[in-house]
Amino acid sequence: MKKILDKLLNVDKKVLIFLAIISIIGIITGSLFMTILSTNDRELINSSLDTFMTQYGQINMQSELINNFLINLLYAFGIWLLGISIIGLPIVIFLIFMKSFLLSFTISSFIMKYKAKGIFLGIIYNLPHQVINLLIFIYLGIYSIKLSLYIIETIIHKKNLNFKHITNRYVTILCLGIIVLLLSSLYETYLMPILLKKVLSIKL
Predict the structure, then answer these.
(1) Measured between alpha carbons, how far is 24 from 18 in angstroms, rounded to an integer?
(2) What is the DSSP annotation of 110-127?
(3) What is the pLDDT of residues 89-137, one digit of tens each?
(4) Could you give the CA distance from residue 184 to residue 114 in angstroms, rounded to a whole number?
(5) What are the structural domain ranges in the chain?
(6) How far is C-alpha 57 from the chain's CA centre?
(7) How far apart are CA 146 and CA 175, in angstroms?
(8) Cystine design at 148: which of 89, 106, 183, 193 (Cβ 3.0–4.6 Å)?
(9) Does pLDDT of 9 surpass 70?
Protein backbone atom coordinates (compact mmCIF):
# COMPACT_ATOMS: atom_id res chain seq x y z
CA MET A 1 0.00 0.00 0.00
CA LYS A 2 2.82 2.36 0.90
CA LYS A 3 4.56 1.67 -2.41
CA ILE A 4 1.35 2.42 -4.32
CA LEU A 5 0.87 5.71 -2.47
CA ASP A 6 4.51 6.68 -2.98
CA LYS A 7 4.15 5.96 -6.68
CA LEU A 8 0.97 8.00 -6.99
CA LEU A 9 2.35 10.93 -4.99
CA ASN A 10 5.62 10.96 -6.90
CA VAL A 11 4.57 13.63 -9.38
CA ASP A 12 6.61 15.53 -11.93
CA LYS A 13 8.12 18.43 -9.96
CA LYS A 14 8.56 20.66 -13.02
CA VAL A 15 4.88 20.39 -13.93
CA LEU A 16 3.95 20.86 -10.26
CA ILE A 17 5.97 24.07 -10.04
CA PHE A 18 4.47 25.30 -13.31
CA LEU A 19 0.88 24.72 -12.13
CA ALA A 20 1.74 26.23 -8.74
CA ILE A 21 2.90 29.39 -10.52
CA ILE A 22 -0.30 29.40 -12.62
CA SER A 23 -2.32 29.09 -9.39
CA ILE A 24 -0.42 31.95 -7.74
CA ILE A 25 -1.03 34.14 -10.81
CA GLY A 26 -4.73 33.21 -10.63
CA ILE A 27 -4.90 34.12 -6.94
CA ILE A 28 -3.19 37.48 -7.49
CA THR A 29 -5.38 38.26 -10.50
CA GLY A 30 -8.54 37.33 -8.59
CA SER A 31 -7.65 39.62 -5.68
CA LEU A 32 -6.85 42.55 -8.00
CA PHE A 33 -9.83 42.05 -10.31
CA MET A 34 -12.18 43.59 -7.75
CA THR A 35 -10.39 46.94 -8.08
CA ILE A 36 -11.28 47.33 -11.76
CA LEU A 37 -14.97 46.51 -11.42
CA SER A 38 -17.53 49.24 -11.96
CA THR A 39 -19.85 50.43 -9.20
CA ASN A 40 -22.77 48.57 -10.79
CA ASP A 41 -20.78 45.32 -10.87
CA ARG A 42 -19.85 45.72 -7.21
CA GLU A 43 -23.47 46.36 -6.26
CA LEU A 44 -24.46 43.23 -8.18
CA ILE A 45 -21.88 41.20 -6.26
CA ASN A 46 -23.11 42.65 -2.95
CA SER A 47 -26.69 41.75 -3.87
CA SER A 48 -25.65 38.22 -4.82
CA LEU A 49 -23.83 37.79 -1.51
CA ASP A 50 -26.88 39.01 0.42
CA THR A 51 -29.05 36.46 -1.37
CA PHE A 52 -26.46 33.73 -0.86
CA MET A 53 -26.06 34.38 2.88
CA THR A 54 -29.83 34.52 3.36
CA GLN A 55 -30.71 31.35 1.47
CA TYR A 56 -27.62 29.17 1.93
CA GLY A 57 -28.23 26.36 4.38
CA GLN A 58 -32.03 26.72 4.14
CA ILE A 59 -32.41 24.66 0.98
CA ASN A 60 -32.61 20.89 0.72
CA MET A 61 -29.26 19.60 1.97
CA GLN A 62 -29.37 16.41 -0.06
CA SER A 63 -29.94 18.36 -3.27
CA GLU A 64 -27.20 20.81 -2.33
CA LEU A 65 -24.77 17.95 -1.66
CA ILE A 66 -25.52 16.39 -5.05
CA ASN A 67 -25.11 19.77 -6.74
CA ASN A 68 -21.78 20.54 -5.02
CA PHE A 69 -20.41 17.09 -5.71
CA LEU A 70 -21.49 17.11 -9.36
CA ILE A 71 -19.81 20.48 -9.96
CA ASN A 72 -16.55 19.22 -8.45
CA LEU A 73 -16.87 15.90 -10.26
CA LEU A 74 -17.42 17.51 -13.66
CA TYR A 75 -14.45 19.83 -13.11
CA ALA A 76 -12.20 16.93 -12.12
CA PHE A 77 -13.45 14.66 -14.89
CA GLY A 78 -12.99 17.47 -17.40
CA ILE A 79 -9.34 17.89 -16.43
CA TRP A 80 -8.88 14.11 -16.47
CA LEU A 81 -10.52 13.68 -19.85
CA LEU A 82 -8.55 16.53 -21.43
CA GLY A 83 -5.32 14.69 -20.65
CA ILE A 84 -6.26 12.02 -23.18
CA SER A 85 -6.60 14.61 -25.94
CA ILE A 86 -3.67 16.42 -27.51
CA ILE A 87 -5.43 19.79 -27.55
CA GLY A 88 -6.44 19.56 -23.88
CA LEU A 89 -3.18 20.88 -22.42
CA PRO A 90 -3.89 24.65 -22.64
CA ILE A 91 -7.48 24.09 -21.45
CA VAL A 92 -6.24 22.26 -18.34
CA ILE A 93 -3.92 25.17 -17.57
CA PHE A 94 -6.82 27.60 -18.00
CA LEU A 95 -9.08 25.54 -15.69
CA ILE A 96 -6.45 25.55 -12.94
CA PHE A 97 -6.02 29.30 -13.38
CA MET A 98 -9.78 29.91 -13.17
CA LYS A 99 -10.18 27.82 -10.02
CA SER A 100 -7.41 29.83 -8.33
CA PHE A 101 -8.89 33.08 -9.65
CA LEU A 102 -12.36 32.28 -8.27
CA LEU A 103 -10.97 31.27 -4.89
CA SER A 104 -9.22 34.62 -4.48
CA PHE A 105 -12.08 36.62 -6.04
CA THR A 106 -14.56 35.11 -3.58
CA ILE A 107 -12.48 36.20 -0.58
CA SER A 108 -12.15 39.69 -2.07
CA SER A 109 -15.92 39.83 -2.59
CA PHE A 110 -16.60 38.96 1.06
CA ILE A 111 -14.09 41.58 2.23
CA MET A 112 -15.66 44.24 0.00
CA LYS A 113 -19.13 43.46 1.35
CA TYR A 114 -18.47 42.72 5.02
CA LYS A 115 -15.15 44.55 5.65
CA ALA A 116 -13.18 43.00 8.55
CA LYS A 117 -15.79 40.29 9.09
CA GLY A 118 -15.48 39.45 5.41
CA ILE A 119 -11.95 38.19 5.96
CA PHE A 120 -13.25 35.45 8.25
CA LEU A 121 -16.27 34.76 6.03
CA GLY A 122 -14.05 34.45 2.97
CA ILE A 123 -11.64 32.14 4.75
CA ILE A 124 -14.46 29.92 6.04
CA TYR A 125 -16.08 29.83 2.60
CA ASN A 126 -12.83 28.61 1.02
CA LEU A 127 -11.02 26.69 3.77
CA PRO A 128 -10.41 23.87 3.81
CA HIS A 129 -12.70 22.46 1.09
CA GLN A 130 -12.05 24.88 -1.78
CA VAL A 131 -8.29 24.73 -1.18
CA ILE A 132 -8.45 20.93 -1.05
CA ASN A 133 -10.44 20.94 -4.30
CA LEU A 134 -7.81 23.16 -5.91
CA LEU A 135 -5.04 20.80 -4.79
CA ILE A 136 -6.94 17.83 -6.24
CA PHE A 137 -7.40 19.66 -9.53
CA ILE A 138 -3.70 20.55 -9.60
CA TYR A 139 -2.84 16.91 -8.86
CA LEU A 140 -5.07 15.72 -11.70
CA GLY A 141 -3.72 18.51 -13.88
CA ILE A 142 -0.14 17.30 -13.41
CA TYR A 143 -1.00 13.83 -14.72
CA SER A 144 -3.25 15.27 -17.41
CA ILE A 145 -0.46 17.49 -18.76
CA LYS A 146 2.09 14.68 -18.51
CA LEU A 147 -0.21 12.34 -20.42
CA SER A 148 -0.84 14.95 -23.14
CA LEU A 149 2.89 15.55 -23.52
CA TYR A 150 3.55 11.81 -23.58
CA ILE A 151 0.96 11.25 -26.32
CA ILE A 152 2.40 14.14 -28.36
CA GLU A 153 5.93 12.79 -27.94
CA THR A 154 4.79 9.30 -28.92
CA ILE A 155 3.14 10.59 -32.09
CA ILE A 156 6.14 12.74 -33.08
CA HIS A 157 8.71 10.00 -32.51
CA LYS A 158 6.35 7.22 -33.68
CA LYS A 159 6.77 5.16 -30.51
CA ASN A 160 4.51 2.39 -29.29
CA LEU A 161 1.95 3.65 -26.79
CA ASN A 162 1.15 1.35 -23.84
CA PHE A 163 -2.28 2.88 -23.40
CA LYS A 164 -3.60 0.19 -21.05
CA HIS A 165 -0.84 0.75 -18.49
CA ILE A 166 -1.33 4.51 -18.65
CA THR A 167 -5.11 4.43 -18.33
CA ASN A 168 -5.03 1.99 -15.38
CA ARG A 169 -2.93 4.42 -13.35
CA TYR A 170 -4.89 7.38 -14.66
CA VAL A 171 -8.22 5.86 -13.58
CA THR A 172 -6.79 5.12 -10.10
CA ILE A 173 -5.77 8.77 -9.73
CA LEU A 174 -9.24 9.92 -10.77
CA CYS A 175 -10.93 7.57 -8.29
CA LEU A 176 -8.78 8.84 -5.42
CA GLY A 177 -9.60 12.40 -6.42
CA ILE A 178 -13.33 11.65 -6.50
CA ILE A 179 -13.23 10.24 -2.95
CA VAL A 180 -11.53 13.38 -1.63
CA LEU A 181 -13.95 15.61 -3.55
CA LEU A 182 -16.91 13.76 -2.01
CA LEU A 183 -15.56 14.40 1.49
CA SER A 184 -14.97 18.02 0.55
CA SER A 185 -18.55 18.33 -0.73
CA LEU A 186 -19.91 16.88 2.52
CA TYR A 187 -18.05 19.54 4.51
CA GLU A 188 -19.18 22.30 2.13
CA THR A 189 -22.82 21.24 2.37
CA TYR A 190 -23.29 20.46 6.05
CA LEU A 191 -20.63 22.23 8.10
CA MET A 192 -19.55 25.33 6.17
CA PRO A 193 -23.02 27.04 6.22
CA ILE A 194 -23.17 26.68 10.01
CA LEU A 195 -19.76 28.33 10.42
CA LEU A 196 -20.73 31.14 8.03
CA LYS A 197 -23.90 31.88 9.98
CA LYS A 198 -22.01 31.97 13.29
CA VAL A 199 -19.40 34.39 11.99
CA LEU A 200 -22.07 36.56 10.35
CA SER A 201 -23.89 36.87 13.67
CA ILE A 202 -20.76 38.19 15.41
CA LYS A 203 -20.63 41.97 15.75
CA LEU A 204 -17.24 43.46 14.89
Answers:
(1) 10
(2) HHHHHTHHHHHHHHHHHT
(3) 899 999 999 999 999 999 999 998 888 888 998 999 898 999 999 999 9
(4) 25
(5) 11-32+61-201
(6) 21
(7) 18
(8) 89
(9) no
